[in-house]
Design goal:
Elements: H1 7-12, H2 21-32, E1 38-44, H3 53-56, E2 57-64, E3 69-75, H4 82-96, E4 110-116, E5 127-130, E6 135-136, E7 139-143, H5 148-154, E8 165-170, H6 181-191, H7 203-209, H8 217-260, H9 264-302, H10 307-314, H11 318-322
Parallel strand pairs: 3-4, 4-8
Antiparallel strand pairs: 1-2, 2-3, 5-8, 6-7
Length: 324
């Protein structure tokens, strides 16, 4: 039985209660290594495009007492163009929150905080931080800095303080002893457990507030449906990847055998076997996608969504939906 609520579910539901802000403030303070005080929640799950993203991704935009914006995103499933999404999200905030006719020095400072549960990019670490800096192309030791006047006017010490900053936590890559505050937070994000030994800012409060048994019966049922769907989506993705690998492996073997065969009859037999296996794998993937759509349709029916909307989001026919 689950003991503590997932961090992304907290962002979806519990942050409506200001008492829960201390958890997110603790997380951001540990991550940025300075005290963060949240003053308001600006948007939640604002740019989702499909019902499936309701489970795959959670996003939240908050503002602190310095008027700085923090876009926190949790991505549960693999997304090849996620780096592009990060760039788009930060840019959109700058565009949306710059007043028409205002001077450029009023653009908001944006922090893009990304918690991902898949292997984003290629690297050995689990916690990354990205900023914008400018270096002399002819002298690698010369970095472009702000002037004294600019520092005074903008309230920034470095050029990077003006541009968006990006944080990426590749949770699935974490496998260390949680002996530091950030490691304790990442351990919680990965395992969902908060041992009594965890003392990082925000986690003692999370240990009390994020107890599953503190949810109402309605929220508890919705939470379990959410977790089950996450597990189902992960299983479908991993199965598809494995099937794709097997298909490619078999096709490669068949091609190699074909090229080495001298007789046309043997070549035809090898191609026939390969095509048959490929067709079978394709049917398996299609069936997996169909089962995923059916599971999503059931969840939407439980949430009393219309048949037309369920059909639009899942691709199932109204007749198929009525039978569920």
């Amino acid at each position: 039985m689950l003991k503590y609520i997932r961090f992304d579910w907290m962002m979806k539901r519990l942050l409506r209660n200001k008492a829960s802000h201390v958890i997110l403030e603790g997380f951001l303070s540990v991550l940025l290594k300075r005290q963060i005080k949240i003053t308001q929640i600006l948007e939640s799950e604002s740019n989702q495009e499909s019902a499936e993203q309701k489970f795959n991704r959670v996003d939240l935009l908050v503002e602190d007492d310095k008027k700085e914006k923090f876009l926190i995103e949790v991505q549960n499933d693999h997304e090849l163009d996620y780096f592009h999404r990060m760039a788009y999200g930060a840019s959109k905030i700058i565009s949306d929150y710059m007043k028409l006719g205002a001077t450029y020095d009023t653009i908001p400072k944006v922090f893009s905080v990304n918690v991902v549960y898949f292997s984003l990019g290629q690297g050995n670490g689990y916690a990354y931080h990205g900023t914008t800096r400018f270096w002399n192309m002819l002298d690698e030791k010369d970095e472009l800095k702000l002037s004294k006047v600019q520092k005074s006017k903008f309230g920034k010490d470095e050029v990077s303080g003006i541009f968006p900053e990006y944080y990426i936590l590749r949770v699935n890559k974490f496998d260390e002893e949680p002996d530091e505050d950030l490691k304790q937070w990442i351990s919680f994000l990965k395992t969902g457990e908060i041992p009594d030994t965890f003392t990082a800012q925000g986690l003692p409060e999370a240990r009390e507030i994020l107890r599953v048994d503190s949810l109402s019966e309605e929220d508890r049922k919705a939470y379990y449906r959410y977790v089950e769907t996450l597990g189902f989506n992960k299983s479908v993705f991993e199965t598809s990847v494995q099937l794709g690998y097997s298909k490619g492996h078999e096709q490669g073997m068949a091609q190699g055998m074909t090229q080495g065969m001298a007789q046309g009859m043997a070549q035809g037999m090898a191609q026939g076997r390969a095509e048959g296996r490929a067709e079978g794998r394709a049917e398996g993937i299609a069936e997996g996608e169909k089962q995923k759509a059916i599971a999503m349709a059931r969840l939407m029916k439980n949430d009393n969504q219309s048949v037309e909307k369920i059909s639009l989001y899942t691709g199932l026919s109204p007749q198929e939906i009525e039978k569920l």
